[in-house]
Amino acid sequence: MGKRTDLHKKNLQTIFYPESVAIVGTNKVKGTVPGDIFTNILQAELNGVIYPVNPREKWIGSLKAYKYIVDIPDPVDLAVIVFPSTVCDRALEQCGEKGIKSAIIISAGFREIGEKGLEREEQIKAIAEKWDISFIGPNCLGVINTDPASRLNASFARKFPAEGNIAFLSQSGALCTAVLDYAQARNIGFSKFVSFGNKADISEIDLLYYLMDDEKTKVILLYLEEITDGPSLMRAARDVMEKSHKPVLIMKSGRTSAGASAAASHTGSLAGSDEICDAAFRQAGIIRCDNVEDMFNIAIAFAYQPLPKSEKIAIITNAGGPGVLTTDEAIRQGLKLAEFNEDTTGKFRRSLPTTANISNPIDVIGDARADRYHAAMTGVCQDDNVDGLFVILTPQSMTDIEKIAEEIAKVANESRKPIYTSFMGEADVAAGIKILQKHHIPHYTLPESMCKPYAATLFFNQMIKQKAERPTVFDDVEKGKVQKVVNENLESGKTYLSEFKAKEIIETYGLPVIKSGLTTSEKEAGSVAESIGYPVVMKIMSDDIVHKFDVDGVVLNVRNREEAEKTYTRIISNVQKSMPEAKIDGVYIAKQIENGTEVILGVKRDPAFGPVVMFGLGGIFVEVFKDVSFRVAPIDKESAVNMIKEIKSSKMLLGARGRKNLDIDSIADAIMRLSQLALECPQIAELDINPLIVLEDGQGCFVADTRIILTN
Amino acid sequence: MGKRTDLHKKNLQTIFYPESVAIVGTNKVKGTVPGDIFTNILQAELNGVIYPVNPREKWIGSLKAYKYIVDIPDPVDLAVIVFPSTVCDRALEQCGEKGIKSAIIISAGFREIGEKGLEREEQIKAIAEKWDISFIGPNCLGVINTDPASRLNASFARKFPAEGNIAFLSQSGALCTAVLDYAQARNIGFSKFVSFGNKADISEIDLLYYLMDDEKTKVILLYLEEITDGPSLMRAARDVMEKSHKPVLIMKSGRTSAGASAAASHTGSLAGSDEICDAAFRQAGIIRCDNVEDMFNIAIAFAYQPLPKSEKIAIITNAGGPGVLTTDEAIRQGLKLAEFNEDTTGKFRRSLPTTANISNPIDVIGDARADRYHAAMTGVCQDDNVDGLFVILTPQSMTDIEKIAEEIAKVANESRKPIYTSFMGEADVAAGIKILQKHHIPHYTLPESMCKPYAATLFFNQMIKQKAERPTVFDDVEKGKVQKVVNENLESGKTYLSEFKAKEIIETYGLPVIKSGLTTSEKEAGSVAESIGYPVVMKIMSDDIVHKFDVDGVVLNVRNREEAEKTYTRIISNVQKSMPEAKIDGVYIAKQIENGTEVILGVKRDPAFGPVVMFGLGGIFVEVFKDVSFRVAPIDKESAVNMIKEIKSSKMLLGARGRKNLDIDSIADAIMRLSQLALECPQIAELDINPLIVLEDGQGCFVADTRIILTN
Question: Where in chain A is the domain with CATH 3.30.470.20?
């Protein structure tokens, strides 16, 4: 894999910056994909040579056409294949023979059409591997590079976008056309624009690593319908963030389960649980976007303005209402309205009219002209309590809109604080907005829309500053022993491990299991109870009995040896009466923990992201309120502690009602060990610890019950 | 009040349809408010006569100017006053003398500037009352009526909107200009457009009642910064809904508390708690909007399309991704993707290509032209399982955008199901969108944005069908007795009523209070306990003791007369030991209810909406999860039951874990009685019943503890 990743990175450079391109399977028919792609490449004025390849034409668009790729006399960097899917394999084979290492396969008719297409896709993958070719596609719109050093438009998009520092990658070709149109209307340019389709060879991960080092790209946008390799995606986004400080924004469809099934029916993708996706993205510093508008709203904040230092913003407006609406949304997004220092307030008192509101949000009043905006903006820019600036304008009859826009651009140019704007309305403010866009001041139609992008840039800035997660790897675990138990059970066809076996496994990974033993005689019960220490709980052990309480198979509060012996006999006889046919393994005796709080730990294996560890408080907290937190493994100490603290009911753990704090560290340790177990033993499909009984700080926690479901 | 309301309704007709208008205080200076208003009225070609009034000019805009209003020789219907605020009182007085009954006061400088302005506002209100004048304003942008029968533009807005069936009312003038611009860009027209400013005389309530009967208006939009009379607003919206089936959409700023304080600083308004506002709006069938875009997204759905019968929608798209994103949002908004009947599926199999996805969402594939959209649309329109239709288009090179738009308009015209659209992109789809707008097909830039408007129309349709809330008025209550207790306490300076007094009050309103008695001797304790029945709880009664448990002043599980007598003595001696200085009233004895579930009821008085009743489960449910529901009083049976069922933890009441249902009816009864008490006794500022102990179905509930806070 590593080898092909390096290969892709090298070959992607050729895909984006080819000096010669063969358009394989193009034709003369305008309005068809093969014809339009040729026109697009030609019209974009590629910095390089184009070779049309068509078995039946002598020339296309006045360019000499070649029958086969191998007929081209000169070396070719990139092949853009637009042949029907049935002959793509032969075309790619010829690319190999010709020594071409980079290809874009536009053609549809592969995996997305079912069994037959999947076969074809496997074929071209094999050919690519054989010849060390890297390709984008199949089933895609193509690739655009606006860099003047290349000016490649190997796509059938309707338009060639402006140059910019935003890269856009999309699994859906249809969305690309809408995105290009949307961006053009807002004067948003792109560095690279890639529709990667079925990603049979080059994936979004490869593209992320390429763009990490692409000097023209500052922000990376990605539209995904399926996540095939969540951990790699997380690692790539984190690498990009840490090494190049570029944010990765992802729009992932399939948020709800019905949405997910729609995704399945149209791309054959398996959507993972959406909450897990949210959590995984946050862990990796990825910013998740809800829709195209949301994505570009956030993208321009990253692309055009510096990252903010803190959540403290100032709002400047010439109308009270929008100021209030924006304040509402700012608070909802976790931002704060800065309190100005006295110096600033003094300045405002001198420079703004008495009717103006000089506290935050600053209302410069409806008749404000550029001078008043200038005074307000420079005032807050010089105030150390302010780290970001939202400027709102409503078009009144005296508002000098364009002058204000110029003023904003000037102030932004001189300031290191991010400045966002919202000129409300449409036609009246259009010229002003154009000026803002020209100067790369983020503009939002709705003033409230300034808040989420600010929150996103703040989140990203905090993530960059955090040191990379380097989870503890415990070496006091016995991986081999666990593997042995797991294999034995799987071989004998058992996939459900109940309490006893499951405890053995987690104990091997250092989780604190309550002292216990299985006993098969009255006498043994007495001595085992004695060795455990009182009080103990005694329960019937039988694979045939699921509800132990119902057969009077559980006794609590056993306090001495004599009681333990009598209880053994009583339990056995109770069960023999209620379920004479049950095969009894014995009576299980365990230490009874008193005054503990019950929490739940769990492991789930997400199809996209792998093992996920879940934490919650026991009982109704999980059942009724779904009050749980989770993280994708591996989990470091800080994340484990955050998991515990971020549930709503965490108050119950942290000294609620005058009680002492519970032993958070011991829960965190259990979470990290579970995370390691889940990663090292992929046969564990699900694991529940319910309950984990937690004592006061310093006194640890104990697994009271657990079960594991295995998978082959 | 009633009299003035009727007056306003009559005078509003003259405000919107005047045959003669005096512009009082206008001048010749373009670019000023007094000058621009004159130009606006003149240019809009009012269906009537205009009279400029200015003490210093002979003519304005070639029209003869009058020195004073009273100098105008003919009768005048409407005065538009643009004089400085200092002379508005004299102008209005002259209106009265001249017999003018309707006025619009544009001028600022009233309540919004503080004490002095407030005085001026009171003055003009008094003058209006004296002369039976109704006026809009002061401090507003003015009034627009697009009806060709009037064509009034008595505003300083930059543009005169197109005719339409949406009315817009706004407390903020600045927002109006942005709204006009926004609407124009989307070809949205208005029936009436009113900036009502400080609403010193005519309020949004009066405008709602006027628009209820306005034939040109189908949908009413309202932007509010403060709600002064919540109950009247709710009643007006409900009346409009029930009598004219017109929805009221309100954008109310100040959602968060910081937002609210910004509102306070700029309009002097008192913002009520936001959750209460949400609940009150829902109760009244009001649709709350988050921002301008949200408001118009919903407005055009109401204005242009029929109301949907059910939540079952069909999505038609030519691109998978947007279909998935829309499905996600639809589910989130409570909609459902319809399952097509076999007949429909059969049709699709015949008319759509095999690569198309013929289940919902229907993917007609990127190369779809109008014929395929037509087949899909007519198919779902004929399917009884579908009640609404979302059509998505992404511009591919072969997409015949305008033809598809025409096709949609044709199908919508013939169908009684609401059809919404989203043509993604900008420039490429602009001509198509124009066609849709011309035919009144709601269009949304983002496909996801179709979902919330659909949910809103569905909600409204359900509200219309519900019978109006006619809350039970219990006549077994003793209003007089409660008033006496309340007055006595207030007169003696007591505003906090603890358990004993508070119980007396709620018992008088028929709430089931646990049997109890205050005892002052061992013997009495024995006999009272005897009469109550065992087990009983015994507690010390003393105003000096807040934490009764801490002084060993509470004993549970007292099971017979002898125990009761001994316990009396023990409690008294315990307390005398711990707090010798405490003044003891006696020992309070109450029936101990076993196996009950504790719930909480409360009453809070919201500054905007009046008494609100709150319900929740006891303990951590309220403390940690804030899992409560509430309604503005009065509350009918159905609402009370819904309140109980809508909390997240309602499972705990409804037979969770194999238990029987609790007595929901008895809780509902208690809620309704509390609601009546709160309305009939306005001195009750707060009331808590904590806990109300609820037994199994049929066995009732009992108030165990309660407290009341009074206010003068």
Answer: 597-710
CA distance A365 to chain B (A): 9
Section A160-178 average pLDDT: 92
Do B266 and A427 lie within an 8 Å CB cutoff? no
> In chain B, where does the domain assigned CATH 3.40.50.261 lie?
2-301, 307-465
CB A256 within 8 A of CB B327: yes
Find the DSSP H helices in B268-400. 274-284, 292-304, 320-332, 342-351, 370-381
Nearest CA in chain B to A174: B319
CATH of domain B597-710: 3.30.470.20
Neighbours of A613 (CB within 10 A): 27
Residue B272: predicted pLDDT? 42
Chain A residue numbers with beta carbons less than 8 Å from the beta carbon of B366 are: 173-174
Q: Which fold has domain A2-301?
A: Rossmann fold (3.40.50)
Closest residue in A to B294 (Cα) is A446
List, by residue range, all CATH 3.40.50.261 domains of chain A: 2-301, 308-465
| pTM, rounded to two decimals | 0.81
How far, in Å, are A198, A286, A295, A319, B388 from residue A250 at the CA level? 17, 7, 8, 35, 30
The pLDDT assigned to B254 comes to 66
Whether domain A515-592 has CATH 1.20.1050.10: the reply is: no
φ and ψ at A256, to 5 degrees? -95, 170
Question: Model confidence over A548-560: pLDDT tens digits?
Answer: 777 888 898 899 9
Q: In this complex, how many residue pairs, one in chain A and one in chain B, have their CB atoms less than 8 Å apart?
A: 231
Which pLDDT value is given to residue B659? 65
Question: Does B263 contact A182 at a Cβ distance shorter than 8 Å?
Answer: no
Q: How far apart are CA B415 and CA A11, in angstroms?
A: 54
CATH of domain A308-465: 3.40.50.261
The 10s digit of each residue's pLDDT in B425-466 is 888 899 999 999 999 999 999 999 999 999 999 999 999 988
| B291/A182 touch (CB, cutoff 8 Å), yes or no | no
The residue of chain B nearest to residue A318, with distances taken between CA atoms, is B174
Contact B181 A363 (CB under 8 A): no
| Chain A: closest CA distance from residue B502 (Å) | 27
Q: Which of A587-601, B329-343, B592-606 has the highest mean pLDDT?
A: B329-343
> How close is the nearest chain B Cα to the Cα of A478, in Å?
40
pLDDT band at B545 (very low <50, low <70, confident <90, very high): confident
- Count Cβ atoms within 10 A of the Cβ of residue B400 and give its class: 0-12 exposed, 13-18 middle, 19 or more buried: middle
Chain B nearest-CA residue for A448: B291
How far apart are the C-alpha atoms of A504 and A488, rounded to whole Å?
Answer: 13
Residues β-bridged to residue B249? B221, B287
Is B266 close to A363, i.e. CB distance below 8 A? yes
- Predicted-complex ipTM score: 0.71
Q: Which fold has domain B307-465?
A: Rossmann fold (3.40.50)
- As annotated, the residues of chain B forming the CATH 3.30.1490.20 domain(s) are 515-592
Look at B184 and A426 and tell me if their CB atoms are within 8 Å: yes
Which of A262, A363, A425 lies closest to B177 in CB terms? A425
Is residue A269 predicted with pLDDT exceeding 60?
A: no
Mean pLDDT rounded to a whole number for chain B = 90
Dmax (CA) of chain B: 103
Q: Quick one: CA torsion of A221, A223, A229, A234, rounded to 10 degrees?
A: 30
Q: Identify all chain B residues contacting A255, using CB atoms and an 8 Å cutoff.
A: 328-329, 332
**Measured distance CA(A518)–CA(A538) in Å, rounded:** 10
**A256 vs B185: CB contact, 8 Å cut-off?**
no
- What pLDDT was estimated at residue B255? 56
Contact B178 A322 (CB under 8 A): yes
Cβ neighbours of residue B249 closer than 8 Å, sequence gap 6 or more: B219, B220, B221, B222, B286, B287, B288, B289, B295, B298, B299, B302, B456
